[in-house]
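Sequence in, structure out.
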Amino acid sequence: MYTVLAIIAAVLFLLAWLINAAEISTNDIFTSTNVMLIGLALLALHVAGIGSGWAARGRRR
């Protein structure tokens, strides 16, 4: 649950690679570069700690 943004970023990188490798023609918004940039933004949010949730702390006795 703590690495959701990183997993989504990895999926977007894979999708961008497939679009580029297969030379699929897409519209101007859904290009491999734009998908890669969205993946980089999600990876940056993951590294910054956004979306990591709250850490559960146990009770100390």
